[in-house]
Design a protein that fits this description.
With 149 residues, the protein is of the alpha+beta class. It has a domain at 2-103: Gcn5-related N-acetyltransferase (GNAT) (Aminopeptidase), CATH 3.40.630. The protein is built from four helices and seven strands. Strands 1-2-3-4-5-7-6 form a seven-stranded mixed beta sheet, sandwiched between helices. Strand 3 and strand 4 (65-73) form a beta hairpin. Helix 1 packs across helix 2 (28-35). The model has no long low-confidence stretch (mean pLDDT 93). Acetylates the N-terminal alanine of ribosomal protein bS18.
């Protein structure tokens, strides 16, 4: 089940961040800011399986542009379609917010993620050298969300 995150989800989302994103993980404090509506354009969605939080996505929607800032799924439930469900929920959220395109960044060395997004209609828009803390390049991807897309 995909649903909006609430205050009781902060600790579990922060744990998923640490487990899935390592050095790039957001702090529990930053997660709490977003989930508790102190970042006005930011939306957290969570995925639950049998009452356990097993995934999350974070998106920002501002006017006609949305940005997928995070998507993470627990290792034990990967390759089950959960990431696709989270992405579909972000696309729906973006469209409801009036966004005409969805942007995201992926590490250049993350072939699995690049293939995942390409299969879902994302195309490369740009590259950001030394974007990540370890100096890795980010690939900026874009998906059109306008009418009929």
């Amino acid at each position: 089940m995909i649903r909006p995150a609430g205050p009781r989800d902060v600790e579990a989302v922060a744990e998923l961040e640490r487990d899935n994103l390592g050095a790039d993980a957001w702090s529990e404090g930053l997660v709490a800011e977003g989930i508790n509506d102190r970042l006005p354009t930011v939306h957290y969605l969570v995925a639950e399986l049998d009452g356990t939080l097993v995934g999350h996505a974070v998106a920002s929607v501002v006017a006609d542009v949305a940005e997928l800032q995070r998507i993470a799924v627990d290792a034990g439930v990967r390759r089950t379609g959960l990431a696709s469900e989270l992405l579909d929920a972000v696309v729906a959220l973006a469209r409801e917010g009036g966004a005409e395109r969805l942007l995201l960044e992926v590490r250049e060395d993350n072939a699995g993620a690049l293939a995942f997004y390409a299969a879902r209609g994302f195309a490369e828009l740009a590259r950001r050298p030394r974007y990540y803390g370890d100096g890795a390049t980010a690939v900026v991807l874009e998906k059109a969300l306008g009418p009929g897309r």
